[in-house]
Specification:
Structural class: mainly alpha
Radius of gyration: 20 Å
Order of helices and strands: HHHHHH
Distance between the termini: 22 Å
Helix content: 55-70%
Largest sheet: none
Number of helices: 6
Shape: flat
Number of strands: 0
Length: about 150
């Protein structure tokens, strides 16, 4: 019989039901939801920043005039939602895996600005996006397979 003090369940995902019996989102799905929330926030922040880009007021010089844009405040809502999902994810997924998967925002944000037509994405950047996407699969795939075996 082993008496290893380091025998913890760190990295193992707990059952999908909360203490109240309600089903909760799978932690990897929560990472994706958090990433989409961050993406929405970043796109709204950009819109808020552009709406106040030519503000001559003293607050415009240091960038605080962006707080006067409703788009910035709309962006804060999904950012807070992402923060809540992220904290929940960190209770169930090792940080090195969760953080690597969360880098999907490096794919989603360029796709978002391209989709909405607000910025041009160079071919070199698209290659970088594909490399990031491949890296996410390299990190996530073994972790998800290991979890399936639990």
């Amino acid at each position: 019989m082993s008496t290893n003090c380091n025998n913890t369940d760190e990295g193992k995902t707990p059952p999908a039901a909360s203490a109240g019996g309600r089903p909760r989102l799978h932690p990897y799905l929560q990472i994706i939801v958090a990433a989409f929330c961050v993406t929405a926030a970043e796109l709204l922040f950009k819109r808020g920043a552009m709406a106040t880009a030519n503000d001559p007021a003293p607050l415009g010089i240091i960038g605080l005039s962006v707080l006067g844009s409703v788009w910035t405040w709309f962006g804060i809502v999904p950012y807070i939602a992402s923060f809540i999902f992220w904290l929940n994810v960190l209770r169930r997924v090792p940080l090195h895996i969760a953080f690597s998967i969360m880098s999907i925002t490096q794919v989603l944000v360029p796709l978002g600005v391209w989709w909405f037509g607000s910025e041009h994405i160079s071919p070199c950047r698209w290659v970088g996006v594909l490399i990031v996407l491949a890296g996410i699969f390299v990190v996530a795939r073994p972790a998800m397979k290991a979890e399936e075996q639990l």
